[in-house]
Amino acid sequence: MNRSSDVKGLIDIDGCSVRVVDAPRVATVRERMPATQDLDDTADVFGLLSDPGRLRLLVSLLDGELCVCDLAAVTGQSESAVSHALRLLRAHRIVAVRRSGRMAYYRLEDPHVRMLLDLALAHTEHSELIHPERGEQS
Amino acid sequence: MNRSSDVKGLIDIDGCSVRVVDAPRVATVRERMPATQDLDDTADVFGLLSDPGRLRLLVSLLDGELCVCDLAAVTGQSESAVSHALRLLRAHRIVAVRRSGRMAYYRLEDPHVRMLLDLALAHTEHSELIHPERGEQS
DNA sequence: TGCTCATATGAATAGGTCTTCAGACGTCAA
DNA sequence: TTGACGTCTGAAGACCTATTCATATGAGCA
């Protein structure tokens, strides 16, 4: 095949030649890179946790189920916004519903997400995060 | 003060009356809710991890520093896109730079983010994530 | 039945984000 | 100095996302 890894500072990636500095290192890191699908799924999960409204909903559900209107009250959002958010989270199996009459009780269903939340909150509550655009080092 | 928690199903939140079902539970969950600032910061961090390009960059940096062009090669992005992404991550102190001549070597700086990445990847590589819009339960 | 209630949904709008392109900047080598 | 190089940046466009409003659905109650 048309490999050009022998060309100094140039390697083939996905069929097109790219400039690199540390070719062997690049090869190693590329091999260890998780599958595209896995990375995209992981990015999706992080994306679901990246909205303050949804994050609040999930944190509220950490120790038990709540109905939509209580979730709206706890998180300070409109019931419509909460419903839309829950629909998204439900579609990704992160929360699950229990229906009782006209009430809908949601619970946190994904243990993986629960761990991410626990880990993230444990850190942010103890150490202050640094805010953007505050100057950088030398 | 104008508390109306005695009104059946109605409580005061931030000065305006809201309908709730389980008032004491709502109060408890609200008390346990982390500070607004902490939640917003946490959502920001998740947001930074929610882009496949940035996620790839950070994963690439998990075991050591790499220069911009190698990061572009490893992650399959343009050098400009990589530079923009690194700028964002740098502003949030998630990565740090070491400059040597005209080269810029980036490394993963935030141990908190490293843990989140490790946890997230450990799970996605072993268990398949469910994709959206596949129908739900009863 | 009709009415109210709790939730769900669709459409539309406003705001944000990623990528690309063109060019700037500082460094190195000749 | 000049030119090539590696990286950085700003502006522009296309795309995606969150919220709101209005309305629908479907359960309980009279």
Automatic annotation (TrEMBL), chains A, B:
Domain of life of the source: Bacteria
SMART domains reported for this sequence: HTH_ARSR (SM00418)
Keywords, alphabetical: DNA-binding, Transcription, Transcription regulation
MF GO annotations: DNA binding; DNA-binding transcription factor activity
Any coiled-coil regions, as ranges: none
InterPro entries for the chain: ArsR-like_HTH, HTH_ArsR_DNA-bd_dom, Metal_resp_trans_reg, WH-like_DNA-bd_sf, WH_DNA-bd_sf
Ranges where the HTH arsR-type domain occurs: 34-128
Name of this protein: ArsR family transcriptional regulator
